[in-house]
Amino acid sequence: MGRYLGPSCKQCRREGMKLFLKGLKCETAKCQVERRQRNLAPGMHGWRRTRLSEYGVRLREKQKVKRYYGLYERQFIRYFHEAERLKGNTGENLLQLLERRLDNVVYKLNFAPSRKGARQLIAHGHIYVNGRKVDVSDYTTKVGDRIEVKDSERSRKEVKQQLESNPNFTTQAWLQLDREKPAATIVALPTREDVQIPVEEQLVVEICSR
Predict the structure, then answer these.
(1) For the domain bounded by 102-189, which CATH number is listed?
(2) Phi, psi dihedral angles at 175 (to 5 degrees)
(3) Closest CA to 187 of 149, 144, 146, 147
(4) In tens digits, what is the pLDDT along the chain, a chain of 210 residues?
C-alpha cells in the first residue's frame, strides 16, 4: 500500500483548515494555514476560489476526515461499511469508530505529538493494550481497555517527555490518564462532541452511499 510522502502542510492548505498533522507546530507562527501568503490551496492556481459542485462539497468533507485520521481510501470504506452495520446514525458511528483507533487514542492521551507520531510509537512496539504488545495502528479499542507504555526506560522516557512538553493538555472524559506510570484506561465510548474536527458527517455518508 502506498504512502503519502509529500508535505503535511499541503494537505491542510488543500482543505483550508488546520488538520494538526504536525502536532504543536500547527499552533505556532510557522503554520502555513496561518500565514497570509500561504493560506491558499496548493498548486499554481491555488489563488482561484471556484465554487464547488454538490459532489465537490461532499468529496472535500470525506477527504478532510481521511486526512485528519490518516486513512487510505480502502481503509475508510471499510470503516464506513462497518458503521452501516451498527445501530444508530451511520455518520456518528463512523466518527466513533475512527476515534477508537489506537493511534488516535495514543495521540489524545498526549503520548505522541501527532497521529503520525502515534503510529510510529505503536509500530515500534512501545504501546501495550491489556498487557499485550499491539503494533497495529488501526486496532479498535473498547471500554475497559488499558493502554500502557512498554516497561522499558527508553519507552517511558520518550512518553514522559512528551507529556511534560505540553503540561496544559487536558484529556477527554472518555479517557482516564495516569501521568505517573504513564498509562490510561478507556472508561466510555467517545461521543460526537469528542470529535475535534468540524465536519458534516451526513455529507460523508451521502458520498459513500453513492
Answers:
(1) 3.10.290.10
(2) -120, 135
(3) 144
(4) 456 666 666 666 666 666 666 665 556 655 666 655 555 666 555 545 677 788 888 988 898 898 889 888 999 999 999 999 999 999 999 999 999 999 999 999 999 988 888 999 999 999 999 999 999 999 999 999 999 999 999 999 999 999 988 878 889 999 999 988 899 999 999 999 999 888 899 999 999 987
Which pTM value belongs to this model?
0.82
Q: Please say whether the beta carbons of 122 and 83 come within 8 A.
A: no
Residues carrying CATH 3.10.290.10, the chain: 102-189
What SS3 state is found at 183?
strand
Query: How far apart are alpha carbons 116 and 67 in whole angstroms?
Result: 11
Burial label for 170, CB within 10 Å (0-12, 13-18, 19+), is: exposed
The residue type found at 128 is Y
Q: Which residue has the cell 455529507?
A: 203
- Cα separation of 34 and 13, whole Å? 10
User: How far is Cα 30 from Cα 33, in angstroms, rounded to an integer?
Assistant: 9
Q: Looking at domain 8-98+197-208, what is its CATH homologous superfamily?
A: Ribosomal protein S4/S9, N-terminal domain (1.10.1050.10)
